[in-house]
Amino acid sequence: MKKIIAATTAAMLMGIGAATAGDANKIVVDGSTTVGPIAKAFAEYYMGKHPDVNITVSESGSGNGAKSLINAACDVATMSRPMKNSEKDAAKSAGVLPIEHIVAMDGIAMVVHESNPLQGLTIEQIRDVYTGKITNWKELGGPDRPIVAISRDTNSGTYETFETMVMKNAKIAGKTEYVGSNGAIRQRVLSTEGAIGYVGLAFREGVKALKVNGIEATPETVVAKTYPIARPLYMYTNGRPKQDTPLYDFITLSDSPEGKKIIEDTGFVPVK
Question: Model-level pTM?
Answer without folding.
Answer: 0.86
